[in-house]
Amino acid sequence: MARATEATGQFGPYGGRFVPETLMAPLAELSKAYDKIIRQRAFRRRLRGLLADYAGRPTPLYLAERLSERLGGARIYLKREDLLHTGAHKINNAIGQALLAQKMGKERVIAETGAGQHGVATATAAALLGLRCTVYMGTEDMRRQRLNVERMRLLGAEVCGVDAGSRTLKDAINEALRDWVTHVHHSHYILGSVLGPDPYPRMVRDFHRVIGDEARRQLKKAEGRWGPDLAVACVGGGSNALGLFTAFFGDRTRMIGVEAGGRGDDLGEHAARFQGGTLGVLHGTRTLVLQDREGQIVPTHSVSAGLDYPAIGPEHVFLHDEGRVEYTSVGDREAIDAFHLLAETEGILPALESAHALAEAARHAPHMSAKMVILVNLSGRGDKDVESVLGFDSGDGVVTPFVDRRAERERS
What we know:
Strands 3-4-14-9-10-13 form a six-stranded mixed sheet, with helices on both faces. A four-stranded parallel sheet has the order 7-6-5-8, sandwiched between helices. A two-stranded antiparallel ribbon has the order 1-2. It is of the alpha/beta class. The protein has helices at 21-37, 41-55, 65-71, 90-103, 117-129, 139-144, 146-154, 169-183, 200-208, 210-223, 239-245, 273-276, 314-322, 332-346, 352-364, 386-394, 402-411, and strands at 10-11, 14-15, 61-63, 75-80, 108-113, 132-138, 158-162, 187-189, 230-234, 254-262, 278-282, 285-289, 326-331, 373-378.
């Protein structure tokens, strides 16, 4: 497989830096600092120590026997990133970038968040290292993820609601970038996925590679093999997927990234970039974007706030073109069904993001032999999504938090 030209911040024709002139120098400074600091033994030792003793790594690799039995066919392993401190894989990158910010002499961090998991992780890392923290979040996402909003505030972060556009992750990133442009001399922007201008896509991927590296070693111990037959992960921006997949690029493992199929195939009803996206530039990087013929970003939809983003990490598009990773989509209903399936068979509430990956695994497992192995990255836990699931179940597919629906009934 051809490799990306990462030295220039590009993955084939994708990636790069498409930002205002005022951000070119800070990005160059960040890139230089990252490339230097990540090679320092003391930095890597400090990061490994915090991931182990504070965040809870290594996370278990769990054989989901009852789920495998229910589906028939392949054995399904879950990489339990949901058991990390703060409840999602996001803490890997948040701690890494917060340490980097501290080494660069920054006193404040900025973040954006969709499902709230990255915001909580950033607020946690900032509290741990004594950094001030501001998190931008679309007001629609704040409504869907109110528990995480309160968690961030309890951790000392300032949560700024964004009421522009679709009031989701895209709009939160816009505001975070504006803040960074204004306060770049003392603030570091902790971008939460493999998006944005270089060095973010490769930096976030590198901080998450620990997921796949651990899984390889754990599979070797459990199954006597380094890689699964099939590895599956959900893809919003794509950080947990690249964290898992990168470790298996040298193997024969089949890899599938799962986007949000939402309510249907029409543009505006989903967030599946490989299904309706065209090449464009969004938030500083060239990638697939859901846009109209005039280049305007179109609305997106997903039951999962973490997958509801109109663009995808540029390396994913490169890997798709190279034929190394396949991409598909799962709709809201199928993801909700997978959420219930895992809850009922294994006693685990997955994040709705992860439920998309589980649904894809459920499509394949019955058609594979019992000797074959599927590895699913369980990127986060579903406590935050309980209201959305209850609202979906009680509203014939209308995604309204249960407590909002109850309040409406009490008022009527």
